[in-house]
Amino acid sequence: MAEPSIYDEIELEDLTYHPSTTLYTYPCPCGDQFEITLQDLRDGEDIAVCPSCSLMIRVIFEPEDLPAEEPPKEESTAIAVEVGA
Questions:
Q1: Which residues lie below 8 Å from residue 28, measured CB to CB, with a gap of 6+?
Q2: Predicted local confidence at residue 77, as pLDDT
Q3: For residue 71, is pLDDT > 70?
Q4: What is the pTM of this model?
Q5: Long-range CB contacts (within 8 A, 24+) of 12-18
């Protein structure tokens, strides 16, 4: 399989991390943003794509550079109790 055409190689520290969406972004020359998710990076993916054009960048990082995984949130189990009158 042919290697994708990479516009540039960018260090992880140069990307902007958005914790609320777990998305890393970097400005694209077209005016939009290259995007890659934290999970993609954890899965070993290193190509961020621009949703508006065909450009791609390679993200240079070490797995230990990624934010720590948060433990799964436990769902609270509320029990409704009726109080007699």
A1: 34, 50, 52, 53, 55
A2: 58
A3: no
A4: 0.76
A5: 12/41, 12/59, 12/60, 12/61, 12/65, 12/66, 13/65, 15/48, 15/59, 17/67
Backbone angles phi, psi at 64, to 5 degrees: -70, -10
What percent of the chain has a predicted confidence (pLDDT) above 70? 78
Q: What are phi and psi of 13, to 5 degrees?
A: -65, -15
CA 84 to chain centre: 51
Evaluate whether 42 touches 1 at the Cβ level (below 8 Å): no
Over residues 9-47, the pLDDT tens digits come to 999 999 999 999 999 999 999 999 999 999 999 999 999
Helix (H/G/I), strand (E/B), else coil: 72? coil
Of 51, 62, 68, 70, which is closest to residue 12 (Cα–Cα)? Answer: 62
